[in-house]
């Protein structure tokens, strides 16, 4: 007499579903993959508009401002400003127009065009603890 038939059947039916759900959450490297953007151009833009006046940013030794959070391990973070999902499209929007996404934030809108903002985001995703 088999008592586990129903259980095994359910397991077999659910397994592909579980695999599918797991596949929807790729590792951070893939989530932050920006093949069309140029991290080196991003660093140049970061320097030009002066993000380091308020942030510690690897690659720039000066001025290492402290008004904003350090971006030293930004690529490892799950959230932007503690409330937005850390995804390429959201980050590219945030770095050029933070107050549009987080009303009342002290992070100002920055003079970057859309391409520069994507390059900046790509650079920020290279910043990891390793
Ligand atoms: C006038 C100071 C100032 C400047 C200039 C500035 N920021 Fe910020 N930034 C902030 C502050 C303050 C926060 C925290 C905002 C919040 O939590 O609402 C912040 C938050 C951020 C965050 C989210 C950090 C986290 O830990 O979630 C990123 C990313 C960021 N800034 C990138 C940039 C980039 C890139 C530039 C240049 C294009 C820039 N910032 C220019 C002040 C600044």
Automatic annotation (TrEMBL):
<dbReference type="GO" id="GO:0020037">
    <property type="term" value="F:heme binding"/>
</dbReference>
<dbReference type="InterPro" id="IPR009056">
    <property type="entry name" value="Cyt_c-like_dom"/>
</dbReference>
<dbReference type="GO" id="GO:0016491">
    <property type="term" value="F:oxidoreductase activity"/>
</dbReference>
<dbReference type="GO" id="GO:0009055">
    <property type="term" value="F:electron transfer activity"/>
</dbReference>
<protein>
    <submittedName>
        <fullName>Cytochrome c oxidase subunit 2</fullName>
        <ecNumber>1.9.3.1</ecNumber>
    </submittedName>
</protein>
<keyword id="KW-0408">Iron</keyword>
<keyword id="KW-0349">Heme</keyword>
<feature type="domain" description="Cytochrome c">
    <location>
        <begin position="37"/>
        <end position="128"/>
    </location>
</feature>
<dbReference type="InterPro" id="IPR036909">
    <property type="entry name" value="Cyt_c-like_dom_sf"/>
</dbReference>
<dbReference type="GO" id="GO:0046872">
    <property type="term" value="F:metal ion binding"/>
</dbReference>
<dbReference type="Pfam" id="PF00034">
    <property type="entry name" value="Cytochrom_C"/>
</dbReference>
<keyword id="KW-0560">Oxidoreductase</keyword>
<keyword id="KW-0479">Metal-binding</keyword>
